């Protein structure tokens, strides 16, 4: 509402003419420039006028309501992004015209993993601006994918050793994030594996703590014969007095094995047996002591 004083009129008749302004003082003027004409008319129909303008400026920012709340979501399956859509915000303006509202990034954008700020701006027709903001936090909770996991392996010990070194190609890991996942195996490739079946677990870890694993086994066989040392020499002896036989005693051979375990040594016939007259072959039998095998 605009109020003004004047204008003041005088007239040669000595009577002050009436003055009317259009629009009148006290009128509500809309935004923009409005011309006002004030007219003086004396009692004899003589007229004069003057004019001015009223320029109403809009310096009031728009009002933003219903700004979206912060959003936390997961990546789309198999993707390093998530498409995010939202409603609002709503903008009103004292001018009565709907302001333009734009968000950066816009609703419907594919957001990368991480936290990204979104700023929404309302702009009215007179250059006045208001803003609100929120964030979009895209989480990666998708496990890496492991391919080419090694097959189960069966092998023999290295010559003279209780172990064998086993080497394999690491599994290949891919991740929806597009980043390389770390792959580790336990035990690691190149480890010396002892006799027996051992499970190997390979684990892929992405940069966001997501894990996947695969497993296989390494079965190390001992197919190497024990080694016999100090085998008794051939023996020639006489029968015991008055007997058709002679009791023969000897020291058992010494046996070593690549496994590092004790080997059982038995002779057939055994030391201390009564041997009858004639030549008898003695066989040495070796075997591992089962109680000491490593599983």
Number of domains: 4
Quote the average pLDDT. 92
- CATH level-3 fold name of the largest domain: Immunoglobulin-like
Structural class: mainly beta
Please state the CA-atom Rg, rounded to the nearest Å. 51 Å
Order of secondary-structure elements: EEEEEEEEEEEEEEEEEEEEEEEEE
Approximate helicity band: under 10%
What percentage of amino acids are in beta strands? over 45%
First and last CA, distance: 98 Å
Number of helices: 0
Q: Could you walk me through the main structural features you see in this protein, from its secondary elements to its overall organization?
A:
- Helix content is 0%, strand content 47%.
- The chain has 295 residues and is mainly beta.
- The chain folds into 4 domains: 1-57, no CATH class; 63-139, Immunoglobulin-like, CATH 2.60.40.10; 145-221, Immunoglobulins (Immunoglobulin-like), CATH 2.60.40.10; 227-292, no CATH class.
- It has a 4-stranded mixed beta sheet with strand order 5-11-10-8, with no helix packed on it. It has a 4-stranded mixed beta sheet with strand order 13-19-18-16, with no helix packed on it.
- A hairpin with a 5-residue loop joins strand 18 (196-205) and strand 19 (211-221).
- The radius of gyration is 51 Å and the shape is rod-shaped.
């Amino acid at each position: 509402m605009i109020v003004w004083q004047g204008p003041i009129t005088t007239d040669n008749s000595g009577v002050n003419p009436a003055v009317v302004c259009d629009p009148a003082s006290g009128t509500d003027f809309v935004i923009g420039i409005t011309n006002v004409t004030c007219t003086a008319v004396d009692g004899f129909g003589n007229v004069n006028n003057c004019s001015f303008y009223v320029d109403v400026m809009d310096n009031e920012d728009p009002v933003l309501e219903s700004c979206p709340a912060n959003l936390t979501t997961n990546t789309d399956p198999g993707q390093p992004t998530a498409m995010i859509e939202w409603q609002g915000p709503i903008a009103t303006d004292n001018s009565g015209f709907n302001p333009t509202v734009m968000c950066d990034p816009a609703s419907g954008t594919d957001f990368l993993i991480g936290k990204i700020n979104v700023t929404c701006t309302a702009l009215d027709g007179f250059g006045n601006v208001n803003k609100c903001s929120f964030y979009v936090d895209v989480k990666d909770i998708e496990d890496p994918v492991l391919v080419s996991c090694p097959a189960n392996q069966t092998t023999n010990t290295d010559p003279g050793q209780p172990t064998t070194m086993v080497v394999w190609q690491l599994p290949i890991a891919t991740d929806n994030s597009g980043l390389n996942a770390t792959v580790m195996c336990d035990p690691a490739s190149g480890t010396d594996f002892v006799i027996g079946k051992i499970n190997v677990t390979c684990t892929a870890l992405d940069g966001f703590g997501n894990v996947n694993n695969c497993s296989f086994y390494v079965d190390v066989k001992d197919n190497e014969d024990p080694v016999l040392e100090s085998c008794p020499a051939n023996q020639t002896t006489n029968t015991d007095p008055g007997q058709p036989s002679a009791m023969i005693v000897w020291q058992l051979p010494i046996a070593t094995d690549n496994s590092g375990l004790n080997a059982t040594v038995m002779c057939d016939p055994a030391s201390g047996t009564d041997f009858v007259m004639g030549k008898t072959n003695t066989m040495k039998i070796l075997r591992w002591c089962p109680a000491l095998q490593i599983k």
